[in-house]
Amino acid sequence: MARLDTRLEAEGAEFLVLGQLLLHKIASYKTYTNMPGYDLVATNPESNKSAMVQVKSRWRTGAGGFPIKNFCCDFVVVVLLNRGSKDGKKEVLPPRYYVFPVDVIESAPRSKNWGKVNLKDIPNYEEYEEKWLLISEFLGEPNV
């Protein structure tokens, strides 16, 4: 099978994360395309702080890892889009979001050629699901 073109879905994942940040009352905006190291900027105008957020998405339901090579950000949000599979055998499910401080991802084991991180290799990775509060606290915002 030919490689699946998921560029539109990857762009959509960035907008999904932007929407989640805004819903969690974290002022944010999308950067210009192809900014090295990050896709979104979360801000707190009152404290004059910002957080650079890199979005990593996986299209396939049941995807367990993601490639990453650039760590010039404060957070990595992994979006498992759960859009099924190329052969149509996997179920389409709601997306899942994991909010990681970049140092957690940087210290995780990665494959040599792709720089792929497997979620299961991150200690207690489940605890980072929907952890938008980490970004709020980083920005010095009161608990939302």
TrEMBL record:
Gene3D superfamilies: 3.40.1350.10. This is PD(D/E)XK endonuclease domain-containing protein. It comes from Kangiella taiwanensis.
